[in-house]
Amino acid sequence: MGEPQGSMRILVTGGSGLVGKAIQKVVADGAGLPGEDWVFVSSKDADLTDAAQTRALFEKVRPTHVIHLAAMVGGLFRNIKYNLDFWRKNVHINDNVLHSAFEVGACKVVSCLSTCIFPDKTTYPIDETMIHNGPPHSSNFGYSYAKRMIDVQNRAYFQQYGCTFTAVIPTNVFGPHDNFNIEDGHVLPGLIHKVHLAKSSSSALTVWGTGKPRRQFIYSLDLAQLFIWVLREYNEVEPIILSGPAWVRHCGGRMPTLAGGGALLWLPGNGRGSRTSCGGWEWRCSSRCGLDKACSLIHPSRMGSLRRQPVTAS
């Protein structure tokens, strides 16, 4: 393997989020190796928008490796309303984390980007060289540009100091600890919640759009395994793009079956999207199995967690 055993103290920012919790689980379930020391932190441990707090955290932990997941995140409507906030807070978080990692001598940083960083108007298939070829979609340009700048910073740290700072660009992530808020959640968790409500009221499930745009999905526990592989084995600055497009209609069509039946209505005049990414590096994830598990999360006893605040900087 790329990193020798016993030499890694791994700091995971955003450890209380969807991907952070998934990494924590797979490490606890046996993915961690002897001698690896995993430290998961959240906004309760430090405000990463504050340079002094971030530096103090890194001085305390003294990581040799970092998985950087922390971000201010939210759904479509919140992004549209608060583009400036998404830009400023995420730029501060990313700059503080990367520079603190550099200052304490971390050997490697793996950050989490998003498929929304790609140009809104582009040609397909998309690859890593196309990230900066045009502006992202106007709805979430603040968040998108802030995430793009991680790639710029990674390359600059490598050029000037030889740092192994890289990034993963996952597709749409779903799984345990997701945000199932219909207004502010993302594609799959929002659909799953709608299925639950439709089943509870014995009504048809209404979905915006035609279902024809392609979206790529990855189960959070599969992505966690990938992050660990990248941390140990991947030593390039260029980010890794995941692929494996699926029709939104296929995912939506699967959910009523999982929920026990019900009609599915598509509204072509609303929410029509475009294909968000295509991969130069493919990860064969268990999407169907993951979808089955994600649907099982919707249960009356869990409904309180579905209404959690959608915007976090964990």
Automatic annotation (TrEMBL):
Pfam family, one: Epimerase
Gene3D superfamilies (alphabetical): NAD(P)-binding Rossmann-like Domain
Biological or metabolic pathway of the protein: Nucleotide-sugar biosynthesis; GDP-L-fucose biosynthesis via de novo pathway; GDP-L-fucose from GDP-alpha-D-mannose: step 2/2
Alphabetized SUPFAM superfamilies for the sequence: NAD(P)-binding Rossmann-fold domains
GO MF, one example: isomerase activity
Domain NAD-dependent epimerase/dehydratase: 10-238
Keywords: Isomerase, NADP, Oxidoreductase
Domain of life according to the entry: Eukaryota
Enzyme Commission number, as recorded: 1.1.1.271
One GO biological process term: 'de novo' GDP-L-fucose biosynthetic process
InterPro entries, alphabetized: Epimerase_deHydtase, GDP_fucose/colitose_synth, NAD(P)-bd_dom_sf
Reported function: Catalyzes the two-step NADP-dependent conversion of GDP-4-dehydro-6-deoxy-D-mannose to GDP-fucose, involving an epimerase and a reductase reaction.
Family: Belongs to the NAD(P)-dependent epimerase/dehydratase family. Fucose synthase subfamily.
Name of the protein described by the UniProt record: GDP-L-fucose synthase
